[in-house]
Amino acid sequence: MKVFEEIQAVVDKKDKKEIKKILLIGRTGGGKSTIANVLVKKDDKFVVSSSSGSSTKSTQVEKFEEDEIKYQVIDTVGLCDTAMTKEKAMSELAETCRLIKGGLYRILLVTGDRFTEEENKMYYTMKETIFDHKFSHFTTIIRTKFPGFLDQEECKKEEENLEKTNPDFFKIIKECKDIIFVDNPPLIGLPKSIEANRDVRECSRKKIIESFIPSDEKYYPPNLRQLSEKFVAHFEEKEKLEKELKETKELSNQDRKKMKERIKELEKEIEVEKARGIRIICTVM
Ligand SMILES: Nc1nc2c(ncn2[C@@H]2O[C@H](COP(=O)(O)OP(=O)(O)O)[C@@H](O)[C@H]2O)c(=O)[nH]1
Ligand SMILES: [Mg+2]
C-alpha cells in the first residue's frame, strides 16, 4: 500500500508539474470564452456571450492535451470586466489566485476588432497592479474576428496598419513580441456553414498552439501570490478553528475563549486582504 501511495505521489507530482496553465484576459466581448472552447475542442463548455447580453458569469477552467502536453485553460471574468460589482470581482480575483497557484505558462490577452483606449489603459494598470514587469514576457496578444488570418500578407498588412492607426496598441504588441490573428466564427446557421466555421476554428486553434514556445518557465505574479497565500492561509486557519470548536467536546472554557478571539482576529485580517484586493480591482476596473 505504501509503495502504491509513493508511486501515486510521484505520478501526481509529475501530473501537476506538467500542466501548463493558460490564463485568458481581456475586455468582455473580445472572444475569450470562444477561444477557450476552440482550444479544448468543445462547442459550449465555456459560456459565450450572446446578443441577449448574457456572458461568462464566473471563472471557468478546462483541461486539454496536445502533443502529449497537458494544458489548462482559465477563462476569467472580473479582471477587465466593468459590468460586475466590486465584491463579485473580488471573489473572482480570489478564485483566479487559487487557480493560478503554481504559476502560469502563458497569458493570452484577447482583443476583438478594435483595441480601445480603455483596453490600452487596462493593460498598463494590470501590469502595475495584478502583474509586474514580467507580464509582457508571458503575454501573447490574440486578435480575434480577423477573417484574413490564414494569409500571412494580410496579417502583416494589418500589423503595419495598426502601427499607423493605433500606435498605443502597436507599442504593446512590440512589448509582448507577438500578435496572433485568428477567427473563430460562431457555430450557427446552415449545417454546411457550421461545418465550414468548425474548419476555420480548427485553423485558429493550430495557429494559437503553434505560437506556444516549449518552456518550463512559469509565472506566478507576486501580487497575486501574496494575496492568494494570505487569503488561503487565513481562511484555512479560520475553518480549522471553527471545526475544532464545534467538534471537540472536551475543550476548556479558556481554550474556547482563546479560539474565538483568534477567529475574530482572522476575520479582521481576511477583511484587510479583501480590501487590498478590492483596491487592486478598483484600479483595474
Ligand atoms: N466572427 C467572429 N465572432 C467571434 C469571434 N470570437 C468571438 N466571437 C463572437 O463574439 C461574441 C463574444 O464572444 P465571447 O467568447 O463570449 O467573448 P468574451 O466576453 O471575451 O468571453 C460572441 O457572439 C462570439 O460568437 C471571432 O473570432 N470571429
Ligand atoms: Mg467570456
UniProtKB/TrEMBL annotation:
Residues 224-276 form a coiled coil. InterPro entries: G_AIG1, GIMA/IAN/Toc, P-loop_NTPase. Residues 21-178 form the AIG1-type G domain. One of its GO terms (molecular function) is GTP binding. It holds the Pfam family AIG1. The keyword GTP-binding applies. The keyword Coiled coil applies. Keywords: Coiled coil, GTP-binding, Nucleotide-binding. This is 24823_t:CDS:1. It comes from Cetraspora pellucida.
